[in-house]
Design goal:
heterodimer; A: alpha/beta; two-stranded antiparallel ribbon; 6 helices; B: alpha+beta; Ubiquitin-like (UB roll); two-stranded antiparallel sheet; 7 strands; about 20% helix; globular
């Protein structure tokens, strides 16, 4: 039986695939999936909605077909687009909760800001090599993603020099994302904690995060009340910053 | 006083692959400086001219050092430092 919740998955990649599967199997009513990417053979080890026959095809329709087989009762709403300054608030506003598994900082901060403006809860997650994190942010007040990571990095960030992610890591972190999303939909308090996962030691830790009074998004005198494209400029290793509003290609790809 | 410092995967190339190292010092800043002497480059990945880089989070136990005095956070016996960088991948 289909539930009534509407959940948007931003990025149907390594994190989005396991998260979408878990949410669909849990009986989420409507699952929106947003991505503009095409399936590549290098995706297959971790993006578990796709197989060899999907290589070269757009991810969103391929994921929709797979989800329809796995959970026929779930209504899948495809969005063949990445999250952009021009569509972010409208897109997240159409859903009850957002699950964000994008692979670049500009999109992560854009999703955080759009959800705060639209008053939508969001679960952020990321995974690089053997390390993953997940964070649930409520629909009102903090702490939020910017309380922890402040702003889009403009300098060489540690992950710029690293490439790739171990397949099982995104399985663990994507499932944790879905777990946090389902908990939030059930009214449980899972806010204000950063979950970290170490794929080498298999250690999972949780740390309390606090609202930062100087946070641009939820702090005292918070300054972000609308989406300004110039705010989502991402530095890339040894490359000039690129404005994602003008260049739809990825700033950093893994 | 030695403090255990947990190193995230992204920075383990600087510690020879070690996920835990020990540093000496009475404050977070002193421990980082001590580690940098043995693992050159580590300090620069964590700290800039303004302090802790904005995409890096440093915890002493369960406390974010932003709220406990930043690099001047004093350490006591048994404290463990964790470094959590912002990551974007999946």
């Amino acid at each position: 039986m289909r539930g009534s919740a509407r959940v948007l998955v931003i990025g149907i990649g390594g994190l989005g695939c396991p998260a979408a599967i878990a949410l669909a199997r849990a009986g989420i009513g409507t699952l929106g999936i947003a991505d503009d990417d095409v399936v590549d053979v290098s995706n297959l080890h971790r993006q578990i909605l796709f197989d060899d026959a999907d290589v070269g095809s757009p991810k969103v329709p391929a994921a929709a077909r797979a989800l329809a087989r796995l959970a026929p009762d779930v209504l899948v709403e495809p969005h063949l687009t990445r999250l952009l300054p021009g569509n972010a608030v409208a897109l997240v506003s159409a859903y009850d909760l957002v699950v964000e598994g994008s692979d670049n900082f500009a999109t992560k901060f854009l999703a955080a800001d759009a959800c705060a403006i639209a008053k939508r809860p969001i679960v952020h997650a990321a995974a690089v090599r053997w390390h993953g994190t997940a964070l649930a942010v409520g629909s009102a007040g903090g702490p939020c993603y910017r309380c922890l990571f402040e702003d889009v990095p403009l300098e060489d960030v540690p992950n710029c020099a690293e490439a790739g992610v171990v397949g099982p890591m995104v399985g663990v972190v994507g499932a944790a994302q879905a777990d946090l999303a389902l908990s939030m939909l059930a009214g449980e308090d899972v806010l204000g904690e950063l979950f970290t996962f170490d794929g080498k030691s298999l250690a999972a830790r949780r740390r309390r995060i606090s609202r930062r009074s100087t946070c641009l998004l939820c702090g005292d005198g918070a300054r972000i009340a609308n989406i300004e494209p110039r705010r989502y400029v991402e530095g890339v290793c040894s490359v000039e910053p690129r404005d994602i509003a003008q260049d739809p290609s990825r700033a950093v790809s893994y | 006083m030695d403090t255990i410092v947990r190193i995230p995967a992204a920075l383990r190339t600087l510690t020879g692959g070690a996920d835990e190292v020990k540093g000496t010092g009475g404050t977070v800043g002193e421990v980082i400086a001590d580690l940098d002497a043995r693992h050159p480059g580590l300090k620069d990945r964590l700290i800039d001219e303004k302090g802790v880089r904005r995409f890096i989070n440093i915890y002493v136990g369960e406390e974010d050092v932003r709220f406990t005095g930043g690099l001047g956070t004093e350490l006591k016996s048994g404290d463990q430092i964790s470094i959590i960088p912002a990551i974007a991948g999946g």
